[in-house]
Specification:
Number of helices of chain A: 2
Order of helices and strands of chain A: EEHEEEEH
Mean pLDDT of chain A: 94
Strand order of the largest sheet of chain A: 1-2-4-5-6-3
Oligomer: homodimer
Shape of chain A: globular
Strand content of chain A: 25-35%
Low-confidence stretches of chain A: none
Radius of gyration of chain A: 15 Å
Largest interface: A-B, 41 and 41 residues
């Protein structure tokens, strides 16, 4: 089961990764050893210029795969499963994306993540996106754990 | 007329800003003195957690408003209109977004940009997004002019 499928319903509406968002990307991320991985095939209309993927979508993939990886890493650090309580969920504090070369449209993209730092409520995830085995994008997400107060408000 | 409405058809397919992309955001950016401005109302499904805007969309707005501002600034620096030839179009080399606080869903967002640096083929645009008059996001786009070779290939 993917990281995102463990999110409680109230936190499963995200346009990028919420399993309940019918309009969204519904990305699915998994552990692959010490790295996390997600596969995603952009739609034909996720276009920048003809033949290439829209940069905003690539940023969105970096964003949601990053927060998903941050959550999974936080559970792992506590030695418990993602289905256990209390829920740990992360929001993006900052996002950085370097577009190394144009990303071709029409192929499956591989998004990979690696935890660079996990300290208190903050997790830094470095990421990269490959198309046809070539890395086209590198990024970094600084994720912070959603405050309990905000989670409580959402539950109401 | 907005910056984006001046793009030639071959460059008007972008999911974020292309006027020909029926599925996309079709943002429209304008000069407002020394700053550029764009107004955008997210859809109800552009959600992160209930009540707040999805960060990937905010990154997309920063991205496309930034490249649009870069193009407009480049024409302005050459003292010619955006309808004149040759076409100048910019791609994002890097994107940075700081999420200062959650951005409320259901209100018009104001995206503002300011040229920080314009040198050769590179333009750096600093940006911010306000909701209800409160700045919730700050970002920066490093835009580079699309190589003539790539434009020529697209025209074919």
């Amino acid at each position: 089961m993917s990281f995102q499928e463990h999110y409680p319903d109230v936190l499963a509406h995200c346009y990028g990764c919420g399993v309940l968002n019918k309009h969204g990307h519904r990305i699915k991320s998994y552990w692959a050893g010490e790295e996390s991985v997600c596969y995603f095939t952009p739609e034909p209309y996720h276009i920048a210029v003809p033949g290439y993927v829209y940069g905003g979508l690539l940023a969105s993939l970096i964003d949601c795969h990053g927060t998903g990886t941050a959550a999974a890493a936080a559970y792992r650090a506590e030695g418990r499963s993602m289905t256990s309580l209390p829920s740990l969920r992360f929001l993006t504090a900052s996002l950085h994306v370097d577009y190394l070369k144009p990303t071709p449209l029409g192929v499956i993209l591989e998004i990979r993540g690696k935890v660079k730092e996990l300290k208190g409520r903050k997790v830094v995830v470095e990421e990269w996106i490959a198309a046809n085995g070539v890395i086209t994008v590198r990024g970094e997400v600084v994720a912070v754990q959603v405050p309990e107060k905000m989670l409580d408000d959402l539950e109401v």
